[in-house]
């Protein structure tokens, strides 16, 4: 049970302490994704220095290599990668459906051909939990029947209902309930009724948190925020809400206002590899010639080890050419995300979150041309922006 | 820069590089390992991770090919190359060739040298070269040289390379003397001549009395794999002859991807400075150094636990090998590096198999640490040698 430190008196934002077996995490929190048991060239010590408190591992990847038997032998992913803070694993379902061409969903589970030798395999709720039990993360996700947000018709309801049935199978198969928390995943596409139903069904189960799934691609921003808003209205206030796959700074800020506590996204680490650095005004693509003689650090208000020493001009000469560039930008981008979340938490504690949001948006949209969805979403939680009109 | 000799034996000598204008408090013990860089970075590492490996000041080797990217920025700004690459506390030595990248041969012209950047080949003549040195302002640099020679070079090629190199030297030295911005930099004369004793002798004799701070024994073209499998007996003979003709008091630099045993042989010939191309090359292929050198017996011992599909040298283990899948011990028992203190062979093997960046980071941290220790032990071995010929 999280300890709520403060509620925003205007919006639905709140800041809490989430006590997990390996670490106590401050929420709202952004969880960087360390897919294969590693964070793109960064040492665990460096992640701790950046104040990363919880990171993600992918069950599909780890379940394939090195596989659950070795994981169990070693004593779990914490020991394997020598990360002593919190871990969360996804179920493997999403990866499978998005990575594999021939994944077929049946009541039993997800049917697919092994990408290594083509043999038919099946990922069932039971098997997903078994692998996640071996990996040993503090929070584990149920296997859900996930559909694209653009899908309409009876398939959406079928997926929503099956997700609940699979949740029950996951809960039944779970062998380590005292050390690992299963989170159910609210589905239902963009249909408010189905989402409500899904959330209600999940709240009838004994769990310590909830994930809001199926909302990170394809849908319009307007549909997106409404679905998040709806979900957080129904989900219990006294348990954390995890919005899967969301990580752009703007989305993070707005969704905190809508009452989300946890996020994950590959974006900051992935974009670093392409030479992009995250800054309050958006992004810098350091490959651009404009930076060849720019001797400022990426962000002169950033206290990360990259900004302490390296200029944009130097980074321009190494991005996408030298391996170290990836590390340097990843460190900066993670630092940016961590500082953003800390700023959100601190401002909620001081009950100044609306001011924080306004200042954040001022930097991102100096011309005050805020996207309509942002204006609508914030006004739905009583935050009215200073607009130019 | 001041190079002072502290102990000379028949089989190697100890010295110290100090009084670098930019780094007045730093001192670098020789025989010294330079950290080979690419684009101003030690491959896969950053200042933060280097600091986890060692708190000592680093000496960096900066090959010309990847320095060229820094020219525009250093020329315009007040930053010298050390500052530009974010390593202002480190000593910088600009080299012509990259000890990891073999020269394909056939591309040098009469008045210019082919430089192989990642982005493609560029031709650099003596004027452009000195312009570059004046932009970069390194602590030490070698004169431009034609190094496209090896054991198979024709007489004509050898002659051409020596002639060009001598010509480049004259120009470089003249410009160095007249250059205000290079006042604080030390110039090293480049010696070439492939594997031809005569040619080397000829050039060395010309250069030996020149007013330079030291010599770079170049032109063997022993980069990358060529270096590791070089016939060191031949090289050793030629280095011995060269050194016999050089003033004792001046620095001797010998770049190249030498095997550990070859390197020890060359240390014993009296070479002072080498580079880290070997540990880097070993890490790039997914391997870790596991050899041991005993300063007392001056002998090497190896960890013959490898076997498997990959072709390996005696001084390494390949973490890509399936045999490490479940091995829960560190790369090397007793090793105090970041990789060995925190991670297992099984994890590093996993990182190799999944092609994750952290794998190379850990291997570099281990290999560079291991090689620095090797240099410590070689210096200890020299110190233990009672057959001194002189003591400063």
TrEMBL record, chain A:
Alphabetically ordered keywords of this record: Cytoplasm, Glycosyltransferase, Metal-binding, Transferase, tRNA processing, Zinc
Residues reported in the UniProt entry to bind substrate: 90-94, 144, 187, 214
Cofactor(s), names only, from the UniProt record: Zn(2+)
GO CC list: cytosol
Subunit record text: Heterodimer of a catalytic subunit and an accessory subunit.
Originating organism: Cloeon dipterum
Name assigned to this protein: Queuine tRNA-ribosyltransferase catalytic subunit 1
N-terminal signal peptide: none
Active site per UniProt: 90 (proton acceptor), 264 (nucleophile)
Family according to the record: Belongs to the queuine tRNA-ribosyltransferase family.
Principal EC category: transferase
Compartment(s) where it occurs, according to its Swiss-Prot or TrEMBL record: Cytoplasm
